[in-house]
Amino acid sequence: MLDIYVAFTPRHAYHLAKAGQKDVVLLEKSELTAGSTYHTVVGSHQPGSIRVTSIPVRVDELKYKMARTHRHPTTQWLITPEKIKELCPLLNMDKIIELDYGHIDPYALTMALAAGARMYGAQIYKPSPVSGLTPSSDGKWDVQTPHGIIRANRIVNATGIWDREVGQLIGFEHPTIPVKALKTELPVIRDLEGSYYLRQERDGMLFEPYEREEKMVLQDSWVTNGVPPGLSEFESDLDCIMDHVEMAMEMVPVLKNAGIINIVSGPITYTPDLLPMVGPHQGARNHWTAISFGYEVIHAGGIGKFLSDWIVTGEPPYDLIECDPNRYGKWTTVPYMCAKARESYGFNNVVGYSKEERFVGRPTHRITGCLPVLPRPSFRRTNWFGPVGRESNLVMEKVEVVDLTPFGKLMVKGKDSQKRLDRLFANIMPKVGLINISHMLTPTRRVYTEVTNTQLAPGEFLLIAVPDQNCTASGNTHKHLKTSHTLRSSGQVDSVDISNVTKDIGVLAMAVAGPKTRDVLQKLTQEDMSGSRVVDAGFKFLHCKPLQLAGIDLRAIRISYTGEFGWELYLPQKDMAAVYQAVMEAGQHEGINNFGTRAHTHTHTRTLMRYGLTFFFFYQMNCDTNPLEAGLDYFINLNKPADFIGKTALQEIKAKGLKRKLSYITIRTLSTRPGSTASIFLQYLQPSYRKAYKEPGICSVGQRVEVEMLGRKYPAMVV
Ligand SMILES: Cc1cc2nc3c(=O)[nH]c(=O)nc-3n(C[C@H](O)[C@H](O)[C@H](O)COP(=O)(O)OP(=O)(O)OC[C@H]3O[C@@H](n4cnc5c(N)ncnc54)[C@H](O)[C@@H]3O)c2cc1C
Question: GCVT N-terminal domain: which residues (predicted)?
Fold first, then answer.
């Protein structure tokens, strides 16, 4: 039985074979480096690299990125213009600033990986185009090659610009679009504002620009017609990159007198968000993808190892959810794909803010209102600071509404449903009519995802999976799909029916401070909603009930994802507008309004703090999180009889003691907003608060620590 790799460069074969996997086969349709790799620049030196910039916000960006990479052993420095001049005398020093990388020959890299793969026992067949992929009922694959059919345990599609065609062999439509990339060997540093890099290539300079959004050329006809046979290179088009050439001449004046030796223009595939699709693909067992790399030469080693570790150990070595191949769905239409890829490519080298909003693909479909202007990104206080604070306060004091439809929703039924869920979740499953929060863990005890579970009827569960930051209003979220994937692939054949109802069910979440939600909802239903802010008389906390609201049948869950008092209402999408209208009209007297997801997160954290709780939630949790370190003990039931995934590993870790712990710290600064996922700027609780992991020895209240933000160290204290 073979573990085979379909196509591409040998990075995956090398790492799998090195990890001791037997029978690794690499199938290459023509020659190694025949794809995009062929067009990538050559050269293999480690001269270091300097990023230069002429705008002040870049300094914040670079400091921000450097602070984030302190966790890793990277060699990088902020250097002065004088040092730059010393290292690179060709530069025009009217332009300014700093750091980074080396470079590598893609041909040599590919051949070295191939030699390494062979050394560890992998076989390479070329030319060997794969023309058919047939799944069998036992989860294996028949791979059709000119040498006959190979039966394989699993396959990895890593076919570069041909990824769509190979995907289509099994009915996938990967949302990847080839882009024409230009490179010009001119006599020439990474100029971020000029959006190009230059480096010495033998006696000359090599110049690679990243064209502007409006100038880049999309090969959209390839999406429908396939990659043309015999493709080598595109015609050169200097006009397309002339702006960048002129900026390079200004930065490096000697270029003005240099001649062009060679122009290389080849295709690269991009996804709408420019990130590759790496991992197991939902919808086909044992089918993995490693496609659509904009920068695979530099990413080859890391991605090969990442995927190999995942295949060999059964879980990813760290979280790369942003590269999940299942993040796209039927909503990824060709026009969306082209428009979004164009925008994302155009953002190559623009300032990269944390939590920034992009423009294309809007307005998203939602029932409730939202801010009329997009937030302006900043490394400091932004224009959403005020509005989010006001929204958050209204949630705490009055009654507000948010459309949370993007939350993933799954129905799980069947005779074995409870058994299956008990194996997958670290918390007990709730009794009929009740709700709880639970986590799916990986075998080595890291958090896979957080889910709100409700047992609607005996053996019938509604699972609400948190949306990722990148979710769309269509409701197909990474985490939701991962959840569904895990469910499907987790068990033996048992009697469990899982359906994705994300698109069918809307979520209107109501949150309030004080008794005002009760007042508003009571006007619309016969159900007893009475009680105070903290004591429920009729509809109790963590209960779920069918309800008629404004004449519409729905399901109400008394939990409130805001952390504040409130209900979530689950109802068919078609009824959302009517229920929203009714709620808004009923709440006029109470001063009802809309709020957004940023206020949602903010309110959640304020509530947790009020109750002295510190834990991660929503998108803050991922495969890099240990639930005990992240304060999730309350939701982990190590005493439950079922042997849930990750239980043994957690018990071992608990016995050994934790290496770090999450706690709150206060920092005395009003202006900076660090972008880590754990940070929330609680503006009405001065000074500002953040969550931070620390060694257990420095977690006690009153402990003084320092926090680095944008290159400056601030005094902070554990609270
Ligand atoms: C001009 C240019 C400049 C670039 N500059 C850089 C840079 O500076 N740094 C960087 O990191 N990246 C750069 N890139 C991007 C980089 O080249 C690509 O990300 C990388 O080469 C992609 O590698 P890959 O293995 O995924 O795909 P490819 O190199 O395209 O390999 C895919 C392989 O699959 C094979 N194949 C296809 N279909 C089948 C089939 N049915 N059966 C068997 N085999 C099949 C093909 O023959 C091919 O060899 C550049 C690209 C271009 C075009």
Answer: 339-640
Task: Give domain limits for the chain.
Answer: 3-34+106-173+277-327, 51-104+178-270, 402-598, 612-718
CATH number of 402-598: 3.30.1360.120
Q: Could you give the residue ranges of the DSSP H alpha helices within 612-686?
A: 647-656
- List strands edge to edge, sheet with 3-6: 123-125, 24-27, 3-6, 155-157, 287-291, 277-280
How close is the Cα of 236 to the center of ligand 1, in Å?
19
Rounded distance between C-alpha atoms, residue 667 and residue 665, angstroms: 7
Nearest CA to ligand 1 atom 9: 295
CATH code 3.40.190.10 for 3-34+106-173+277-327: no
User: What is the C-alpha to C-alpha distance for residues 14 and 121, in angstroms, rounded to an integer?
Assistant: 9
Q: Which residue's CA lies nearest to atom 17 of ligand 1?
A: 37
The pLDDT assigned to 546 comes to 95
Phi, psi of 40 (to 5 degrees): -75, 150
612-718, CATH topology level: Elongation Factor Tu (Ef-tu); domain 3 (2.40.30)
* CATH number for the domain whose boundaries are 51-104+178-270: 3.30.9.10
pLDDT averaged over consecutive 10-residue blocks of the chain (719 residues)? Answer: 56 86 85 73 62 79 79 73 78 59 64 85 87 88 90 86 88 80 50 85 81 86 85 78 90 87 85 91 84 82 89 87 83 90 89 82 74 70 77 86 84 89 93 93 85 94 71 40 57 71 78 74 93 82 94 92 86 91 94 85 77 65 84 91 93 92 78 43 56 85 86 84
Ligand 1 pocket test: pick from 5, 6, 8 the residue with the most ligand atoms within 8 Å of its Cβ: 8
Distance 36 CA to ligand 1 centre (A): 3
Q: Does residue 158 have its Cβ closer than 6 Å to ligand 1?
A: yes
37 lines ligand 1 (CB under 6 A): yes
Tens-digit pLDDT profile for residues 318-370: 888 888 888 887 788 999 999 999 999 988 888 888 777 788 887 777 777 76
Task: Please state whether the peptide bond connecting residue 515 to the residue before it is cis, i.e. omega within 30 degrees of 0.
Answer: no
Q: Tell how far the Cα of 268 is from the centroid of ligand 1, in angstroms.
A: 7
7 lines ligand 1 (CB under 6 A): yes
Ligand 1 centre and the CA of 15: distance in Å? 18
Calpha distance 18→15 (Å, rounded): 5
295 lines ligand 1 (CB under 6 A): yes
Nearest residue to 20 (alpha-carbon basis) of 124, 154, 111, 121: 121
Residue nearest to atom 18 of ligand 1 (CA): 296
* Ligand 1 contact via 41 beta carbon (within 6 Å): yes
